[in-house]
Amino acid sequence: MPIVDGIPALNLGNPQPEDVDTRPHETAHDAVGPAPSRFWLRMSAAWWRSLQYVGMTLHFQAHKRPPNPTFTKTIPSTISKVKGEFTLQFYTPEGYAVADKTGRKFPAVVNFHGGGFTIGNATDDARFARFVLEICHAVFVSVDYRLSPENPFPVAVEDAADALLYLIRSGPDLHIDPSKLAVSGFSAGGNLAITAPLRLADHVKSARASGMHIPDYRIRAVATWYPVTDYTRPRALKRANSVRPDQTLPQTFTSLFDASYLYPPSLSLSNPYLSPSKATDEQLAEAIPETVIFYTCEWDMLLEEGKEFARRLEREPISRDVRYKMVPGVPHAWDKSPNPNRPAELSEDLYSECCEYLREAFERE
């Protein structure tokens, strides 16, 4: 049974291969069709958010219990045209409490949670945070970006870029070294881990061209877990091409997620801040850091697009150091299992592996 961010989900009503339209989607209307009302989407999202909270509560019970945030910061949006606030959850490693006295500056991993841009919370990845603290000795900053349908695209990616911009500007005051940043994310957050650096690079270029001072920074690595990278591919086609269509994300969820985030109907699905696979080689070479850590799931409908994108990043002219792994025999978001007795199989081994790669990236001169 697939798990969607801690929620066990029956897979009902998925189309059979003969029903699949293989034509690429160009606009949100192509992907969503006649969308439900925004009011209905808000009510549906609220219902699934409550269930997701229960699922994640169970997920956190398994030994070893994950850490709690050390402190939070609520910051104003500066990039998005939709003004508002969002919260950063800070998890801090050993030695941070005395950094005022020692003057030590820590690397930081800026994380984006999953949930189809519609459900989920910044604390959902606390199990991963524990490995970042213990192995990377880095601050883990998880972002409660604003969710759809209340805030459809591009608010989430702009909040994600804004979180990075805040740490670039304020990091030294928070004992964070802006030259040692990394981004991570799961599912929708895996998309943001790729698109936020793209959005940030464009914003910084524009801001500096207009005379605005933005401090120097360096993003050392991207760690992306089972991301969506191409919204132009029909969901039904992705599902039909999976080796286990019965284990892919249920249509109930994908329809809700897409109708909530892909708005208005005229939205181009080739926007690189939405579908990073549609970014140019020049955009990717400018914004994507040297180290790319990329995990996909064998039974996931997002497997093929993820694998293709990872290979593209590895090839010339982008030529990144890509650490790619397909996790066998698991569905999308398997690591968020709501089993209170034990963590999902392989999840902690892969969290550890990922953090070893992150540590290497931080330590590389």
UniProtKB/TrEMBL annotation:
Record GO terms (molecular function): hydrolase activity
Organism of provenance: Achaetomium macrosporum
Protein name according to UniProt: Alpha/Beta hydrolase protein
UniProt cross-references to Gene3D superfamilies, sorted A to Z: alpha/beta hydrolase (3.40.50.1820)
Region (Disordered): 1-31
Coiled-coil regions listed in the entry: none
Keywords: Hydrolase
Residues of the Alpha/beta hydrolase fold-3 domain: 109-334
InterPro entries xrefs: AB_hydrolase_3, AB_hydrolase_fold, GDXG_lipolytic_enzyme
Compositionally biased residues, Basic and acidic residues: 20-29
